[in-house]
Amino acid sequence: VHGYCQILTVSAILTVGLIISYLDGTNETIYSSGYLVKQLGCIEEQLERAKDKSAWAMTMSYLGGMFFYIQPSLTPKINGDLSFHHRWQRDWFGKDLDVRMDL
Questions:
Q1: 3-class SS at 32?
Q2: Cα–Cα–Cα angle for 42, 100, 76, rounded to 5 degrees
Q3: CA distances in angstroms from 72 to 48, 52, 55, 79, 99, listed in the order given
Q4: Does residue 95 sit in helix, strand or coil?
Q5: Angle 13-17-21 (CA atoms, 0-180°, nearest 5)?
Q6: Are the C-beta atoms of residues 73 and 67 closer than 8 Å to each other?
Q7: Which of 13, 62, 81, 100 is the most exposed place for a label (fewest CB within 10 A)?
Q8: How far apart are CA 78 and CA 74, in angstroms?
Q9: pTM of structure
Q10: Which residue from 28, 32, 36, 45 is spatially nearest to 69, judged by alpha carbons?
Q11: How confident is the model over 81-97, as pLDDT tens digits?
């Protein structure tokens, strides 16, 4: 997997966010609130409407849906590919983060 892969990064952020929510005693998370299921449903509809069903087109549509529907709840201050964001390049890559403050 490419070193600056978006999927791995966002998966790590989601997992850490869930752990912090649990440790902080937050009752509602992206999972328990139903938000994730709703947003994944939007992506599913987007993929069903796609005219081009080739593997490449479906992959790009899925990634675009993840950026548009799900990423704003994980990294509200960052839109688009996290690996190209200046904070990832300058402040975060290879460093320990204070997830409560940085994200």
A1: coil
A2: 30
A3: 23, 26, 25, 7, 15
A4: coil
A5: 175
A6: no
A7: 100
A8: 9
A9: 0.65
A10: 36
A11: 666 777 777 877 777 87
Spatial CB neighbours of 83, under 8 Å, sequence gap ≥ 6: 4, 5, 6, 9
Q: What is the pLDDT of residues 62-84, one digit of tens each?
A: 888 888 888 787 777 777 666 67
Q: Specify the 3-state DSSP secondary structure of 75.
A: coil
Residue 52 carries which side chain, given as an amino acid letter? D
What is the pLDDT averaged over residues 25-37? Answer: 83
Distance, CA of 79 to CA of 34 (rounded, Å): 22
> Which residues, other chains included, contact 30 with Cβ-Cβ below 8 Å and sequence gap of 6+?
14, 17, 18, 36, 73, 74
Structure tokens at 83: 């690996």
Q: Which two tokens stand for residue 57?
A: 């087109």
